[in-house]
Amino acid sequence: MADANLLFDYTGHLPECPTWSEDEQALYWADIMECEIHRYVLSTGEHRVLQFPEEVGCFALRENGGFIVALRSAIWLADSRGLLQHKVCDNPSNPQLARFNDGGTDRDGRFYAGTFWGPGDYNGALLVRIDNQLRPKVVQCDIHGANGLAFSEDKNWMYTSDTPNGVIYRTPLDKHGEPQSREVFRRFNAGEGIPDGAAIDEEGCYWSAMFDGWRIARFSPTGEQLAEYRLPVRCPTMVCFGGADRRTLFITTTRENMSAAEVAQYPLSGAIFTLPVEVAGMKKLPFIER
């Protein structure tokens, strides 16, 4: 079984939302707490950092260039330099208590962004969708920390995780892509880690970053664990497929809320890793505006 390797000499605070651009052969990711989007070109080692005025929970590349980006207070369209151009909608949660977190696009190029309920006193987070006409709609509630968004190639299923509650859900989608009643895909016990960001491969299997679990896990479409890949850091945050053949798994990790002693013991916390895999991942679609 292959080992994970460092992408390059970088460690962030809370790297998330790795996104591969096939056109650019470049990896993008957010550092939420540093209010940044990063771009790294594998062939040249060029590393560019875009600064935003608030925490960048998640983003997607736009079909015609630039980003759709979920900042703490609102979702915006931004150009390729990171300059905000148009506010799509305000954060439908209380932005003082719930920042945006995990998100991405479905198989029709619509953008989904979930929130994380900071107080933790109840499941106060939600999942909002921005359609191709820039219309927002809250599609799920009763969430503590939205994560793990992924969609099956046949458009029949949406996968999400609720990280603090240690559960992955799958939700059937109707012919219009509207979510129906979610169902439990898999729950996790103490010591297994809790499911964070995710991606789906061409065989329909779900790859989850197991936060606090030192590993990435691959699950069948019915929830059976098929494989795991150990990491030298405790808290991976998200995965995406990329590379020329989409057989490289890019893994973001974090050092958020770690003590100085733990960071000293595990200095790669916050780094980005690559892992060669045998099954190609599904292409992540851009956000499509019509």
TrEMBL record:
Instruction: Look up the EC number in the record and give it.
Output: 3.1.1.99
Q: Which InterPro entries match?
A: 6-blade_b-propeller_TolB-like (IPR011042), SGL (IPR013658), SMP-30 (IPR005511)
Which cofactors does the annotated protein need, by name?
A: Zn(2+)
Which amino acid positions bind a divalent metal cation, per UniProt? Answer: E16, N147, D196
Where is each SMP-30/Gluconolactonase/LRE-like region domain found? 14-254
The protein's UniProt keywords, in alphabetical order, are: Hydrolase, Metal-binding, Zinc
The active site lies at: D196
**GO MF annotations for this entry?**
calcium ion binding; gluconolactonase activity
A Gene Ontology biological process noted in the UniProt record is: L-ascorbic acid biosynthetic process
What is the UniProt remark on how the cofactor binds and its stoichiometry?
Binds 1 divalent metal cation per subunit.
Q: For binding substrate, which residues are annotated in this chain's numbering?
A: R99, N101
On whether Cytoplasm is a keyword of this UniProt record, the answer is no
Q: Does the keyword Metal-binding apply?
A: yes
Give the protein family: Belongs to the SMP-30/CGR1 family.
Write down what this protein is called.
SMP-30/gluconolactonase/LRE family protein
Question: From what organism does this protein derive?
Answer: Kluyvera ascorbata
